[in-house]
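ugh ok so i messed up the first submission bc i forgot one of the chains. this is the corrected input, ALL of the components this time, i swear. 230 residues overall. if the numbers dont match what u have on ur side tell me asap before i send this to the collaborators (the ones from the other lab, u know who)
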Amino acid sequence: KNQVEQSPQSLIILEGKNCTLQCNYTVSPFSNLRWYKQDTGRGPVSLTIMTFSENTKSNGRYTATLDADTKQSSLHITASQLSDSASYICVVSDRGSTLGRLYFGRGTQLTVWP
Amino acid sequence: EADIYQTPRYLVIGTGKKITLECSQTMGHDKMYWYQQDPGMELHLIHYSYGVNSTEKGDLSSESTVSRIRTEHFPLTLESARPSHTSQYLCASSPDRGLGSNQPQHFGDGTRLSIL
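and heres the new structure output, hopefully the right one now
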C-alpha cells in the first residue's frame, strides 16, 4: 500500500533554532517528492521538489534531502523565524499514471516561539 | 506568487441547500484539482481535470460534481448540502507536462464549508 508517514506530528522550537522534519514513504514507482508549507487558513505552497537522482535541494533557509534507497526524506529549517510556524507536508508522486498520482502525508505542525 | 483564487473563503449554510464553490486560475494551466482536507488529516483528491471538457473522480468518494467549460474555471457543486460535507475544500492547478510531471501544484487558499 502506498503511504507517506511524517514525524513528528507536532514540534515546538524557539526562534533562531534549527529543526529537522522527517518523511518516510512506500510509494512505488517513485517519481518525485515534494515539501509544502501550509500556513493556517491558507493553501499549501511548494518549497522543494526532488526527483530520484537528486539527494538535496535548498530554498533559502529550507533544505530538503532525499534517500531514494531507504525511501526517506527530511526537511531542515535553519535559524527558525516566527513566520516558519506552519504545517509542513510531504507529498510523493508516482509515475504509474499520466496524472502522476500524489500521496500526501498528514503534515508536521511546527510552532516557533519567541 | 501563484494566481489561483477560491470563493467564498468561508461559507456557513443550512442542510439541503445547493452550493457552488468557485475556483479560477490565470496561469493557463491545463490540470486542475479539488481536494478535501480535515484538521490534522492529509489532503484527499475528490475531482480532477486534464483540460476543458475533462472531469474525473478522485480517490475519495464525494457527492459533489465539477465542470470544466473554460480552462481557467473549475467550479465544484453540491446539490444538497449535508453536515457530513463540512470540511475545507482546496483547489489546485498545474501545467500539463505529461507523465511523472515535476511541476508543483499551485493551491488556492481554500473554502472552509460548514453545514448546519
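quick check: DSSP finds no helices and eleven strands in chain B. that seems consistent at least. The CA atoms of residues 14 and 116 of chain B lie 5 Å apart.
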